[in-house]
Amino acid sequence: MAESNDSTSLLAVPEQPTAMKTRWVGDWLERRGFEVRHEERRFGAWTRRHHLEPGAALCGVDNAVTRAALEDAGFDLVVEAGLGGGTQGFRNFSLHSFPGPKRAGAIWGGTAPTATAPDVSTMPAYRAMKVKGVDGCGLTQIASRTIGVPFVGLTAAILAVGELLRRLHGGDAMEVVSGSLMALEDTVAFNGADVPYAHGHIDIGDANLPDAAYRPSPGLQ
User: Fold this and answer.
1) Burial of 197 by CB count in 10 Å (0-12 exposed, 13-18 middle, 19+ buried)?
2) Which is the catalytic residue, given 112, 131, 137, 183?
3) Burial letters for 157-171: b for 16+ Cβ neighbours within 10 Å, e otherwise?
4) Residues 65, 68, 73, 79, Cα dihedral to 10°
5) By mean pLDDT, which of 83-97, 169-183, 207-221 is the weakest?
């Protein structure tokens, strides 16, 4: 875990600058009664889900290559959450769920368009750095760095976990959600399937059945 996570992650603390974030979050969850299993392997086009592993996946990565391979691993449901970047878009968030109207490979598999960075040279912070002697190359490098704040990541995480819970309880499926914390009233969402997610639980059915009939399926752990 990089030191920069101390200011951008809710659960990071300076005392754990070298711990992997998955381990730190896992410990936090276990202290609250959750059962945690770690699978510390890189995800990519080569990844394949075993049929006894959970059927639902939550994704929060920071690169298009990994996102493009989300549907190839064999999960029954994938909920992907992403954050905006840069000085103008760091408050933005989005959510995609798969299967959906468009495949992950079609969204992220092509060559990403080159974005034009906004001119920030007139902003007070950059003017102050220029006065202190930072040259044009240094200012350009600093301006190109993305910005992260914990409340945007928290919002995206709530949407992702909420999507799974909503489907388990028979709510509408959200295939795409896109918005900004600068104007939540302008958030755009597209509904999908209106049937309960069938891989995380089974119907109760006949109350006279033995207890074994009520055990949840291995699709969601």
Assistant:
1) buried
2) 137
3) eebbeebbeebbeee
4) 110
5) 207-221
Partnered with residue 95 across adjacent β-strands are: 81, 177
β-bridge pairing 56-59 and 77-83:
parallel
Question: What gap in Å lies between CA 25 and CA 9, rounded to an integer?
Answer: 11
pLDDT band at 221 (very low <50, low <70, confident <90, very high): very low
* 59 noted as active-site residue: no
What separation in angstroms does the CA of 143 have from each of 21, 116, 125? 26, 12, 11
Mean pLDDT of 178-195: 84
Q: Worst-scoring range by mean pLDDT, 55-69, 131-145, 148-162? A: 131-145
Angle at 185 between CA 183 and CA 189, to 5 degrees: 110
Tell me, what's the pLDDT at 105? 93
Task: Name the strand (E) or helix (H) holding 82.
Answer: strand 77-83
Decide if 54 contacts 164 (C-beta within 8 A). no
- Residue-level pLDDT at 215: 39
- The sign of the CA dihedral 31, 37, 40, 45 is negative
According to the model, what pLDDT value does residue 20 have?
Answer: 78
SS (HEC) of 14-62: CCCCCCCHHHHHHHHHHCCCCCCCCCCCCCCCCCCCCCCCCCEEEECCC
